[in-house]
Structures are given as structure tokens and as C-alpha cells.
Write a structure and sequence with these properties.
The complex is a heterodimer of chains A (487) and B (299). Chain A has 15 helices and 20 strands. Chain A has 487 residues and is an alpha/beta fold. The chains are: A alpha/beta (487), B alpha/beta (299).
Chain lengths: 487, 299
């Protein structure tokens, strides 16, 4: 051995495929879950659910219509009036704890299904989604009989039936975020999962059955956007909770005006991830990578705008380039996969279109090398340098693994550029200097701000947006507020 | 007192470092990939005995083990080196004659380093004269923690000079330096002072090698290479007992510094009990099922 004359590099050592076994119970067809039973859609129609990693049909999902929504709301109302509303809160709590434990028990199966249906890597569905899903039910189970402590001096009462429409990026987790606080506060629920990711919601329904949750407390109706629209428009619901795009959120807000329904919206984002020149550099690189490529970038709070202090820009970009090469894109069920499949053809087209606009508008594209699978929907992890605040890729939510890198000179400029957006869901600050963290955080207009980390979630921590990223908070004690009349 | 280094020493975030290190443990290494990695790990092993009770007999056994860790049918390569106290260097050299296995000697008042520099340098010269082909020195942690970085640097340079052509590994005893910022700083310091390898621990202090500490060191040698074109090796030592852990280190090295570091010339494991578990795993891959640990020689 002699470090001056390094021995020749050893032959390439790569990881063999490490596929998760897929011996899970995947049904050929999924029905609605109404009044505690799985029922066929009144239209008799089903639509295909595609496995985005293969582009092939995974299963068939019931196509919900207004009649199905009517039945679901009716059942939810009955359950609210007769069972769940009058129930002793401590009893509600027991059901939620039971659901949480069952989710933990079945988490492996659910994680596999989540990856097969949505394309996200098994490592994430196993280590991130499922533990948090259970944690949310545990957390709100604890609140169910302690609501008076969340609203001191008042007597909170439930709202009635909550209509909830959730997105496809974290199917089970979003269901948990919506259902757990609603039930803890004594409401009943009609949930409409996203069209491309309904499978795990129906497995969650089976868990509700197994937990003995009274019929009608949670109803799940699947279908496309129109099904969700029918739910939102239904006169029998007292509250709408929506997570999804800003465009749809706007429509919902418009349609609910004057209806007296409560509304919370968790919409898009274009988060600023700000790296100062005194940042812990390795951690900041990881934070930039995790901030944008986590879950293929299908994250509303993704750090999709990276602001690097000018003095470290070039070095940081080189580090990102090197790091990009170690990211493994491929089969979501391979335990070594970092980035899985893009959720749908439609989303892939949207991402590709925006990448095209970045090139056209003069930004410089960098992407990882290596071959992509030939079937299914895939996108290389990508970032742009030389981006200006007016570029489309700096203003529009891409919802894919595409990062826009810009620079700043001073803290004031960083804040100004970070706030130069119509969104305000999240932000990240990277500096080793604590006082700077607090100063910058107080000046950023974003609902969640991470310091020297990114994409950290905890059921006890509220989540929600400023500006066009929506209103209302989910998670934490604050998440209870939108599911009660404080009294 | 100010002491400045040529290379940059970025701040290290504790939470981020530990999180990143943990991410490497999530890689799943199977089949041929596992076999290849385990063989690589054996070839990177500095088989070590550093006890007051060490005898020529013990060292002889260790040397034979290093030459042929397992029955020939497993195609297990020899270890990289045998690591002993200076008194046993000559014996190890004789035992390993004709092999490519290095004889590494700890020196400079191992493990504490709390001796006058003249004695520590004499220790090095003795070991080299006895035929040691690698020297594992310890830094003065006391001086480092006092803030006398210049002394630490000068001592390393002096030891390097005493080593002559013999490659020098510099042991930090990261368990005593404690913070990742200290590890990053001392790594850069040792590299600039002439270290050929930077090494975590003596094995006499807990915690010894950990994945995050080694990650910080690997990041330092990578950044040094990118800045200067010179490659320095890294040796985690102490506390690595299972094949699974060894694989996690290899994953970390591959994804942090790149494939070039996956070589005994640039990465070593200092270990005494790791080899046994690696053998067990290699045999399992060959035979298809786990065998009793009783079937593998312990030394």
C-alpha cells in the first residue's frame, strides 16, 4: 500500500437487485366502502388503476357517481346522528388506537401495495409513509377525549359529515391526515381518494372493518375528479377538506361560497431552500437532494427552488452533480431504489413540458446519467442552473424531480427572492448560525420552515400554507380546530 | 493561538451526518454483490491483536489466519495486514515472509500517546527497523483538546519523517475528540501534515469506529482529492464486528468517495473479531445455509 501511488480502482461493485416480495392480497377489483360494506358502484362501471412502474393495469377501481356519493353521505350522516356523534369520546379514542395498531401490524403489506399502486420506492413507503400513517392515528386517538384541553374554557362540538378529497402523492398518509382528526373530533367522513391511487385506501377500509369501527363512520367512494366534485357539492356535508392543486382548490372555494360549509385547503407549493455560505455543507447537499427528489418530487412542500449564496454556488453545484450520480432510479419495489416511477402518464407529460420550458427559456439543464426502464413512466432527477425568478420553472409547481437553482448575495436578498412566489407552504434554511435561522425564519412567508433539515414530519406539528398554498392546518393541536365548532 | 489549514474545513451538522450515515444502512446487499463485497472486506482487513498478553504464538496464529482465512474452496482472499505492537513486529515479519500481507505496527506510545515526542519517535524508528511496513500512530489528543493544533500537526509531520517510505496511518481516537467538527478538522490537519491513512480509533476507547464518524473522514479525503488530486486512505477501527456492518461501510465509501476507494490501498478495516462473521456469511453464500460458528477457526 502506498497512498502516493494508489492501487488501481477495483472492478465496479454494484448492488444486485433486492426486490421486495409481492405476495400481497391485491384484488382484481375494488368496490366503494359505504356503510361498513364494500358495495359495487351504482353505475356498474370501473376504471383501470395503472402500475406506473410498468404502465400496465394493476386492478380495477369502482367509478363513483352522484348516486354513490348520496349513499355515502347518507350513511355518514346516519352514523354521525346515531352512533359516532353521541359516543363517549373515550370510546372513539379506543377505535382510533385500534386502527393505529392494525395499521402497524399490516404496514409491510400496505407499504408494498402503496409502491405498486403509486410508484414510490418501497424504502420510502416502508420507512416514511406507513410509520407516519400509524403515528397520525395514534396521535389523534390521544386527543379524542381531551378536546376541552385544546380549546380551554370552551366546549368543542363536532361539525357533522366531513367530505375529504385527497391527492395521489401520499395516498395513505393523506387519508390518515384527513380521517384521524375528523374522527377524533366526533365527525364522520366521506373520503374520495385520488383516481390513480385508490388501492390502499380500500385496504384501509378493510382495517376499519376489522377494527369494528361502526358502519358509516368512514365511507370511501372512488372515482375521477367529477366524483370529488359531487362530494364537495353535496348539501349533506358540513365541511370540505381538500389537498391537491391550487387550480382545483380555487374552484372548490368558489363553489362553496355562501354554502356555510367549512373549508380547508392544502394546495401547491414552490418552496425556497436557502443555503448560506456558512451552512454545514454536506448536510445542505443532502437537504437539497432530499428536498426535491423525495417521492419523485411529488411533494407539495418540496424544496423546488434552491437559493445558494453566490460565493459557494459553483462548489455546491459540483457537489450536487456528484451526488446526483449516486441516486438510483428504478423499480419501486427494489429496496435499493431512491427514485421510483412518476405517478401517471399525465404527470410525466406535465413534468416533461416544464423541463422543456426551462431549456427554452435559457436555463442550463443537468440530469443524472444511466438508463431508465423502458416501460412505465420515468423521469431522471434533474436540476437547472442559471434560473431566473421569472422563468416558468421558478414560478410554477412542477411536482416532479426537477430543481431550479438560483443565487443570492445577502440575507435580505435571500428573503426577498424566497418570498417572490404566489405560494407559501414550506421553506428551508441552511446555516450553522442559530441567530440567522431565527431571523430568516421570521421573515419567510411559509407555513412550515425547516432549519438544517427538510421534509421532516410529525403528527404533533401543524402543516399548512400561506397565500395560494391554502389555509387551515393539518396535524398537531391546530389540526383539531377545523373539525370542531369551538363552542 | 491560531492554526490555519490550506484546505477548507466546512462545518458538520450532527443530525444530518447521522441521518446520512443511517441511510447507507438501508441498502440491501444480496447474492453475488454480497459475495464480492465480503471478499473485498477481507482483503481490506487489518487483522489486529493489541493486548498486553500478546505472545509470539498468538501472533503466529494470527499471521496464518491472515494468509488463509478460510478453507481454499471458499476462494477467500488473504487479509491486507496484521497489526501488532512494536515488540512483535519482527516475529510477524518472519511469519509473513513471502506473502503480500503487510505488517502494521502501532507506535508513538499507543494507545494514549502521552509520552515525550522523542520516545514516541524512537518507538516509530524501532518498529520500522524491525521491519514494519505500515505505522499506525496516535495523535496527542490532549494537545488537540487544549487547542494546540500546531503541536498535533508538527508531531504528525515528525512521525511521517521518521517513517520514511513506510506509509503512515494517523489514529485520532474520535471517541475522545467527540464532535464531528473536531473529526473533520483533525482529518484535514492530519492529511496536510502527511498522513497516508486517517484512522478512527485505537480500539481501546468506546465508542470506537462509527459509521457517521467514518463518513465525516471519508468526506474529508474525497474533498482533499477533488482539491489536490491526492488520495488518502481511511481506516475505521474497533467496534466493527459483523459482516453486515462491514457492508454498510463499503456502501458508504462507494456512495461518498466513489469506487476508487474500494481498495485495500485506500480503505481498511481494523478488526479482530469481524473476520469470523464475514467467514460465516461467505460460507452461507457458498453452501446455501448458515453453519454453526463452531466450524470456523477463531484465530
Amino acid at each position: 500500500m502506498n497512498a502516493e501511488k494508489p492501487s488501481p480502482p477495483s472492478p465496479t461493485w454494484d448492488y444486485a437487485p433486492a426486490l421486495e416480495t409481492t405476495t400481497v392480497k391485491l384484488f382484481k377489483q375494488y368496490e366503494h366502502f359505504i356503510d361498513g360494506k364494500f358495495v359495487a358502484p351504482s353505475s356498474g362501471k370501473y376504471f383501470a388503476s395503472i402500475n406506473p412502474a410498468t404502465g400496465k393495469r394493476l386492478t380495477r377501481i369502482a367509478h363513483g357517481t352522484e348516486a354513490d356519493i348520496n349513499a355515502a353521505v347518507k350513511s355518514a350522516r346516519r352514523a354521525y346522528d346515531k352512533v359516532w356523534g353521541p359516543m363517549d369520546p373515550a370510546e372513539r379514542s379506543k377505535y382510533l388506537f385500534r386502527i393505529a395498531r392494525l395499521i402497524q401490524e399490516k404496514s409491510r403489506e400496505l407499504a408494498i401495495l402503496e409502491s405498486m399502486d403509486g410508484g414510490k420506492p418501497i424504502r420510502e413507503s416502508r420507512d416514511f409513509d406507513l410509520p407516519l400513517v400509524a403515528a397520525h392515528f395514534f396521535y389523534y386517538a390521544g386527543w379524542a377525549d381531551k378536546l376541552v384541553y385544546a380549546f380551554p374554557g370552551r366546549t368543542p362540538t363536532p361539525l357533522g359529515v366531513a367530505g375529504q378529497v385527497i391527492p395521489w402523492n401520499f395516498p395513505l398518509l393523506m387519508a390518515a391526515w384527513k380521517i384521524a382528526p375528523a374522527l377524533a373530533c366526533g365527525n364522520t367522513v366521506v373520503l374520495k381518494p385520488a383516481e390513480t391511487t385508490s388501492v390502499t385506501a380500500m385496504h384501509l377500509a378493510a382495517i376499519f372493518q376489522e377494527a369494528g369501527l361502526p358502519d358509516g363512520v368512514v365511507n370511501i367512494v372512488t372515482g375521477p375528479g367529477e366524483t370529488g366534485a359531487a362530494l364537495v357539492a353535496h348539501r349533506g356535508i358540513a365541511k370540505v377538506a381538500f389537498t391537491g392543486s391550487t387550480a382545483v382548490g380555487r374552484e372548490i372555494a368558489r363553489s362553496l361560497a355562501g354554502s356555510g360549509k367549512k373549508l380547508t385547503l392544502e394546495l401547491g407549493g414552490k418552496a425556497a431552500n436557502i443555503v448560506f455560505n456558512d451552512a454545514p455543507i454536506e448536510a445542505a447537499v443532502e437537504g437539497a437532494i432530499n428536498g426535491i427528489y423525495f417521492n419523485q418530487g411529488h411533494v407539495c412542500c418540496a424544496g423546488s427552488r434552491l437559493f445558494i449564496q453566490e460565493s459557494i454556488h459553483d462548489d455546491f453545484v459540483e457537489r450536487l452533480k456528484r451526488r446526483l450520480e449516486t441516486i438510483r432510479v428504478g423499480d419501486p419495489l427494489d429496496k435499493n431504489t431512491d427514485i421510483g416511477a412518476i405517478n401517471s402518464r399525465e404527470q410525466l407529460d406535465r413534468i416533461t413540458g416544464l423541463i422543456g420550458s426551462g431549456i427554452e427559456e435559457g436555463a442550463v439543464l443537468h440530469e443524472s446519467g444511466g438508463a431508465l426502464p423502458t416501460e412505465g413512466f420515468w423521469c431522471r432527477p434533474t436540476f437547472f442552473t442559471g434560473v431566473s425568478s421569472s422563468h416558468r420553472i421558478a414560478r410554477e409547481e412542477i411536482f416532479g424531480p426537477v430543481l431550479s437553482i438560483m443565487t443570492f448575495r445577502t440575507p435580505a436578498e435571500a428573503v426577498q427572492k424566497a418570498n417572490d412566489t404566489c405560494y407559501g407552504l414550506s421553506a428551508g434554511i441552511w446555516t450553522d448560525k442559530g441567530s440567522k435561522v431565527f431571523k430568516i425564519a421570521s421573515e419567510l412567508k411559509a407555513g412550515v420552515i425547516w432549519a438544517n433539515t427538510f421534509n421532516k414530519f410529525d403528527p404533533a406539528s401543524p402543516f399548512g400554507g400561506f397565500k395560494e398554498s391554502g389555509f387551515g392546518r393539518e396535524g398537531g393541536m391546530q389540526g383539531l380546530r377545523d373539525y370542531v365548532v369551538p363552542g | 493561538m491560531t492554526f490555519s489549514l490550506k484546505g477548507a474545513v466546512p462545518r458538520v451538522d450532527q443530525v444530518g451526518t447521522e441521518e446520512r450515515a443511517a441511510s447507507f444502512t438501508k441498502r440491501s446487499i444480496k447474492g453475488e454483490s454480497k459475495r464480492e463485497a465480503l471478499r473485498l472486506a477481507v482483503s481490506m482487513m487489518d487483522l489486529t491483536t493489541l493486548e498486553g498478553a500478546d505472545t509470539k504464538g498468538k501472533v503466529s496464529q494470527l499471521c496464518r489466519k491472515a494468509r488463509q482465512p478460510m478453507a481454499a474452496r471458499y476462494e477467500c482472499p488473504p487479509c491486507a495486514a496484521v497489526c501488532v505492537y512494536p515488540n512483535l513486529v519482527a516475529h510477524a515479519v518472519a511469519e509473513l515472509e513471502g506473502s503480500s500481507i503487510a505488517v502494521a505496527s502501532v507506535a508513538t506510545g499507543f494507545p494514549s500517546g502521552q509520552y515525550p515526542l522523542a520516545i514516541r519517535l524512537a518507538d516509530v524508528c524501532d518498529a520500522v527497523a524491525a521491519g514494519a511496513t505500515e505505522i499506525d500512530m496516535v495523535i496527542s489528543r490532549g494537545a488537540f483538546l487544549e487547542g494546540d493544533h500546531a503541536r498535533v500537526s508538527d508531531e504528525i509531520a515528525a512521525v511521517k519523517e521518521a517513517c520514511g517510505e513506510v506509509p503512515l496511518k494517523v489514529i485520532f481516537e474520535t471517541g475522545e475528540l467527540q464532535t464531528y467538527d473536531n473529526v473533520r478538522f483533525v482529518s484535514q490537519l492530519a492529511i496536510e501534515a502527511g498522513a497516508d491513512f486517517i484512522k478512527t480509533s485505537t480500539g481501546k476507547v468506546a465508542p470506537a469506529a462509527t459509521l457517521p464518524v467514518t463518513l465525516v473522514m471519508v468526506e474529508t479525503v474525497r474533498d482533499h482529492f477533488l482539491a489536490t488530486g491526492k488520495r488518502v486512505g481511511v481506516k475505521p477501527a474497533g467496534g466493527i464486528r459483523t459482516a453486515k456492518e462491514a457492508l454498510q461501510y463499503l456502501v458508504m465509501v462507494k456512495e461518498t468517495a466513489g469506487e476508487a476507494w474500494l481498495s485495500p490501498g485506500l480503505f481498511r478495516f481494523g478488526a479482530s473479531s469481524l473476520l469470523g462473521d464475514v467467514e460465516l456469511q461467505l460460507a452461507k453464500l457458498a453452501e446455501g445455509n448458515y453453519q454453526s460458528a463452531d466450524y470456523f477457526s477463531k484465530a
